[in-house]
C-alpha cells in the first residue's frame, strides 16, 4: 500500500510556525517512505473560513518548498459524503437529534462530582438531555452519537501510534469512551458535519495511511478510531508530533500573528530559516 499522509489546515487565520512544522514533518515522512503528501483544506466551519486565508496557505506552503497533488480536497465541497456517513450511523440507530444550546448543557451538567470527568476531547461531556426528548423535526438541531449504544459489543478497538511521544499500540476501552467522551456531536447546527466526522470521512476518501498532526489532537484520536469502526472504514496509523511553543511555553495559536509564516517572509526570512527555526533540517 502506498504510504500517504496529509496536512489539513483550517483557513481561519495565517499559518504559523507550528503549521510549518506539521506540514514539513508530514512531507518529510512521505518522502522517507517513498509515498505521497496530500493537502486538505478543512473549511467545514464556513462562518470562520476565508478564501484569502486559503490562498495564503497555498502560497506559504509552496514557499516552504512543498508540493501536493491537485485538485485539493476542500471540506466545503464534501457535504454529500458527510450526509451519507451520518445516514449510515442513523440507520444503525446510533444517533439522535439535539436542540440543546451551550447554556442548556452548562445548566444541565450540574455541580462537578469528584472523580467524574466533565470535559473530554469534544468539550463538555453531554449530560444526555435530548437522548429521549421528542420535538418537531423542523426545529433547528444538531445530531449526536449515542456513545453507549455505539460501543455496545465493540471489541479490539485499537490503533498504532508511530510518533515518539506516544509510540506503540493503543487499545481503546469502551466503558471509558462513554465516561470520558460521551455523546459527541456529529453534525453541528448550521454545519454539514463536525470536525470529527469530517476528518474521518475525508482521511478514508483520500486513502490516508498515516495521519500526521499535532499532539493537541491525541485525545480526539479515540473518537476517530471509533467512528472509523462504526462506518466500516480502515484505521490508519497515527503520528502525533510535539507542538511548537512560544517563548513563554504557550502553544501557538492562529491569532499569534507574530509567529505567522507570512510575517517572517515579510521580514526577509528564507524558507531554510523557517525550517531551521522549527528545528528541522532543510
Ligand atoms: N484542521 C485541523 C486543524 O487545523 C487539523 C485536523 C487534523 O489534522 O486532523 O487544527
Automatic annotation (TrEMBL):
One of its GO terms (molecular function) is ligase activity. The keyword Zinc applies. Residues 4-279 form the Glutamyl/glutaminyl-tRNA synthetase class Ib catalytic domain. PROSITE patterns: AA_TRNA_LIGASE_I. InterPro entries: aa-tRNA-synth_I_CS, Glu/Gln-tRNA-synth, Glu/Gln-tRNA-synth_Ib_cat-dom, GluQ/Sye, Rossmann-like_a/b/a_fold. Pfam families: tRNA-synt_1c. Signal peptide: none annotated. Belongs to the class-I aminoacyl-tRNA synthetase family. This is tRNA glutamyl-Q(34) synthetase GluQRS. It comes from Cognatishimia coralii.
